[in-house]
Amino acid sequence: MSPETKNRIDQLVHDNKIMVFMKGNKLMPQCGFSNNVVQILNVLGVPFETVDVLADMEIRQGIKEYSNWPTIPQVYIDGEFVGGSDIMIELYQNGQLQEMVEVALAS
């Protein structure tokens, strides 16, 4: 990954309390896993930003190196990598995601 791509990802992750790297965007997810993440965050009613990895191949590859996680979507809360669709579903179902989001938005 180029230093420029790493800097762009750093900035996106740190400038947004909840950042989702996904296929498509929050208005039009382009895969089921990305849609799962968007639906969970919409149910929580929290503000979040998205980056469409399909529109930017450098980000699409770079984000996998950045997180050392091979799949997309990838969710960052308060600058920390949380995981993808399955992890978000699990955290939502056990109540931990709501707590993580509340803490992030309060800071």
User: Nearest-angstrom radius of gyration?
Assistant: 13 Å
Counted up, domains total: 1
Helix and strand pattern: HEEEHEHEEHH
Strand content: 15-25%
The averaged pLDDT comes out at: 95
Spatial strand sequence of the major β-sheet: 4-1-5-6
How many beta-strand elements? 6
CATH homology group: Glutaredoxin
- The termini sit apart by 31 Å
CATH top level class name: Alpha Beta
Question: Quick recap of the structure?
Answer:
The chain is α+β, with helices and mostly antiparallel strands and 107 residues long. 53% of the residues lie in helices and 20% in strands.
Overview of this protein structure:
The protein is an alpha+beta fold. The protein has a single domain (3-106), classed as Glutaredoxin, CATH 3.40.30. Helix content is 53%, strand content 20%. The protein contains five helices and six strands, in the order H-E-E-E-H-E-H-E-E-H-H. The strands form two sheets. The chain has a four-stranded mixed β-sheet with strand order 4-1-5-6. The mean pLDDT is 95.
